[in-house]
């Protein structure tokens, strides 16, 4: 079961590689990801219901990190299908359309996400209430939960796993809409004509850069570690003209990688050592 959890992010990343080279996600691609993620979530449910969890921490990890990642991406791609299905054909209307979509998203955020205690709990990285939020059978109906919970399978939901998924989806949808308005933000790998105009361009993955940022921060290599991760991230975003999105969430995903956790740092180490040996 633990190995399955670690492989989930790898499955999604592998499927998304076909989209990474595109500046904009097409309707067919988004629909393909909806089908893929829906099947993946169904397989996860079958595994959980048949195998269960070895201990309390494994259950918390699943409902706090693994399931929300799959469900959040599913909500995200499903939203893209809806957005692109109603996209106007007129290029003159596109900017207004995506701007309106962002306004609607922000209204939804204020109403259902940003003003909740759980949102602040999630963003702060706290763990003190994980036992309450991410274990089954703890739903407090006196809080007036969303009515969808009555249709959810209590053996495969804690209610807050869904809330976490919505936060993940919100961040992804917001980034997508910004990329639609500013196409250059949609992909860190630019064509040669655009890249030649830049002083520097980041040509590895976004996760690799986030891994490097965290390593520099926690090691105290930048300002003795006094600056926040968020501010450090902005420095690199401005330097490379790249949007990293929610780097806290991205880093949290790295903890569940299969194999080496700091794979990019190992890649840097190996590359440098090979270069040194070549000059001997």
Automatic annotation (TrEMBL):
<protein>
    <recommendedName>
        <fullName>RteC protein</fullName>
    </recommendedName>
</protein>
<dbReference type="InterPro" id="IPR018534">
    <property type="entry name" value="Tet_reg_excision_RteC"/>
</dbReference>
<dbReference type="Pfam" id="PF09357">
    <property type="entry name" value="RteC"/>
</dbReference>
